[in-house]
Write a structure and sequence with these properties.
The chain contains 7 helices and 6 strands, in the order αβαβααββαββαα. It has a domain of 104 residues: 2-Layer Sandwich (Beta Polymerase, domain 2), CATH 3.30.460.40. The protein has a 4-stranded mixed sheet, with helices on both faces. Strands 5-6 form a two-stranded antiparallel ribbon. By secondary structure, it is α+β, with helices and mostly antiparallel strands.
Length: 157
């Protein structure tokens, strides 16, 4: 698949708004929306865990063109914590319990609005990557931390 693009964020944002899905961009796709100069192959969304939100996400994803199987739809609606989708217009990971973040409501209280996109605060993106402790995450942490310092310097005080 091609790299994550702004257009994909627009498509997600539009469909999720129509279905009132509560979500945040997280991971590298979230950092990229904040201005992080890197690429990633997929969008990663942190979704609020309620049954209503999960059902709405399934409807929005089908509208976006994801060919969800019944098993994938069930994974989303039955409280699975992580679902990878590779059967749509772009690669998408859904995370309901990211490492390093206590709950959606806490992350939402800190989120950043980027041109209408709800994005996890850089601190939450870094906390999640650090807690996941995968090799690729450990390798990207110094760059993400440097970006966070730069990004914070641009924020109004």
């Amino acid at each position: 698949m091609a790299a994550f693009e702004y257009r994909q964020a627009l498509e997600v944002g539009d469909a999720f708004a129509r279905h009132a899905v509560q979500y945040l961009f997280i991971g590298k796709s979230g950092a990229i929306l904040l201005g992080y100069p890197d690429t990633t192959q997929n969008a990663v969304l942190f979704l609020q865990r309620s049954p209503r939100n999960r059902r709405a996400a399934v409807e929005a994803l089908r509208e976006l063109g994801f060919g969800l199987t019944e098993a994938e739809a069930a994974d989303i609606t039955r409280r699975k914590d992580f679902v990878q989708l590779r059967n749509g217009p772009f690669d998408l990971d859904l995370v309901f319990a990211p490492d390093g973040i206590e709950c959606f409501e806490d992350a939402w209280s800190r989120h950043v609005d980027v041109e209408g996109f709800p994005v996890c605060h850089p601190d939450d993106i870094i906390a999640s990557k650090a807690a996941a402790n995968r090799v690729k995450d450990r390798e990207s942490l110094p760059r993400l931390r440097a970006f966070r310092e730069y990004w914070m310097s641009l924020q109004p005080r």
